[in-house]
Amino acid sequence: MKTPLVLVTVITESLFKDKIIDILRKKGATGHTLTNAQGEGSRGSRAADWEGPNIKIESIVSPEVADAVLEAVSGDYFENHSIIAWTTEVNVLRGEKFVKR
Amino acid sequence: MKTPLVLVTVITESLFKDKIIDILRKKGATGHTLTNAQGEGSRGSRAADWEGPNIKIESIVSPEVADAVLEAVSGDYFENHSIIAWTTEVNVLRGEKFVKR
Amino acid sequence: MKTPLVLVTVITESLFKDKIIDILRKKGATGHTLTNAQGEGSRGSRAADWEGPNIKIESIVSPEVADAVLEAVSGDYFENHSIIAWTTEVNVLRGEKFVKR
Fold it and tell me: Which of A20, A25, A35, A86 to mutate to test the interface with B (most CBs of B within 10 A)?
């Protein structure tokens, strides 16, 4: 009934919403969920060098797609922008529909 | 201080909110958290055959309750509807209050 | 590319927002994300003895910071208040920026 898959979570500035969704699609995600959020965080040395309206994008994917998404998100494009991304191991109901054949 | 328990996450159309909460209660969950979300995803073969206002429902439960909730959610009722459900292993503060005796 | 870290999630009444953020900062978190949520839950024997506007606060931290945050949150201050806190093991992109040196 449950399939072990990966939840990819990306939190970033709202203006990157379409860019992230585009990455998810291209790398093989079959869907995603958006939530509005507010963030405050560090991009490096200072304690809190960005804050404001953020978006949280979540997608259930295979381990391979998760790695491809994270690699895309770690690329040059986001180097100087506020982005947080992580993966969580989850067990998904009807998991087969989240994996493209 | 921490108890290993299960986080059940259900994302579905807003209109199913009460139905899901009812399932959670009947299966033994002691509480839940609701967040508004937007979803886009696949129910099968097409790339994006539903999108719109969704609700994310989260509940910390025992492994047994988690399985019962997922089984209820996998039933006929939701067969033709957009629903995503998954479990995550978590460590919970004061975990005893999430398990009914 | 990915670093194993801990996602700390705290759900509580909105009025405790600043208190929780203060705890996160003091214990060493470098940032956090806020989401509005609605909660209903149990503080003990009754089925649903609180409900209303809640806030969900998430932060990616080291295991040591996670434990310190949970210990602070389990203290006397919140004894009679509605608070849920848990940790999840995650793999974080550019994880080094979430750990203070």
Answer: A35
B-facing residues of C in 36-95 (CB < 8 A) are 36-44, 47-48, 54, 56, 70-71, 73-74, 83-89
Domain presence at residue A99:
no
Distance between B48 CA and the closest CA of chain A, angstroms: 7
Between residues A39 and C15, the one the model is more confident about: C15
For the stretch B68-88, pLDDT in tens is 999 999 877 776 668 899 999
CATH code for the domain in which residue C70 is found:
3.30.70.120
Range of the domain at A27: 2-41+51-85
Report if residue A91 sits inside a domain: no
pLDDT digits (tens, 9 = 90+) for A21-36: 999 999 999 999 999 9
- Calculate the dihedral angle through the C-alpha atoms of B78, B87, C42, B19, rounding to the nearest 10 degrees: 0
CA C61 vs CA A21, A86, B100, C3, C28: distances in Å: 26, 12, 31, 11, 8
